Amino acid sequence: MSWKRNYFASGGGAAGGAQGLVTPRTMTSIAPSKGLSNEPGQNSCFLNSALQVLWHLDIFRRSFRQLTTHKCMEDSCIFCALKSIFAQFQFSSERVLPSDALRSALAKTFQDEQRFQLGIMDDAAECFENLLMRIHFHISAETREDICTAKHCIPHQKFAMTLFEQCVCNSCGATSDPLPFIQMVHYISTTSLCNQAVKMLECREKPTPDMFGELLRNASNVGDLRNCPSNCGEVLRIRRVLMNSPEIVSIGLVWDSDHSDLAEDVIHSLGTCLRLGDVRPPHTHLYLAISVRTFTGVQSPSLEPIQWINL
Ligand SMILES: [Zn+2]
Ligand SMILES: [Zn+2]
Ligand SMILES: [Zn+2]
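A: This is the predicted complex of the input protein with zinc ion.
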């Protein structure tokens, strides 16, 4: 189903529908923009898009620049490789840079797991997530990933979402034990994102700026069903609550097939305003990091300041 085609073709949409649900704000990033090479057979597009997201996130770029000491892993050191490519982004006169050193450090680091190996395609969002966890390792190795409070740890200080999930039965009142966890990327199914967009637009005159947060919340809840904790027979939706206020919220889009026809709809569903409701101050600026990989292999990281999120 194509909500974008149906909605805008029927004349019900906002003027300039091709702009997406929400008109993007001015980009605040002034980072120089360069391409990253991806020769035939290299299959580095997943890494390149993760890298572009990190480079174009002001908060990450500036904080990372200040880090100097780290636990070095020599030729498999992701920290050193990242420092080197960031220096090239900033100072090189080339328009297109090779990401080979980082690609190789990544392959060596994940050799045992057989992830991110040379020449083999992999997932951009998972690569992004793993790059963050490796940075944590290089700069605060002594702290466990799930309880890291190191002030200088950019991944945990800026990106980590602390959530808990719980089932509450409306029928018998039983509740499951709250399960706390940390996530770096919030994954959403593109199919449920588009289906929810259709549903939400059915009862609205036109898209509104606060719609994206609600859309994410609705799309996250779909399909995640559990049995009632006291087995009363009720099937429940799991409830997830965001407990902290990360400066950067990363959304990973999960495609249900390699040949999804939803790419255009998804891009038009992306908004830049997320509200956490009345619970949190609405003046905090967050950054939304979305890496869109189209099936033609073109990456276009889209980075916009956003408001709040309630997952
Ligand atoms: Zn190093
Ligand atoms: Zn950490
Ligand atoms: Zn129950």
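The longest helix spans residues 124-140. The chain is about 35% helix and 15% strand.
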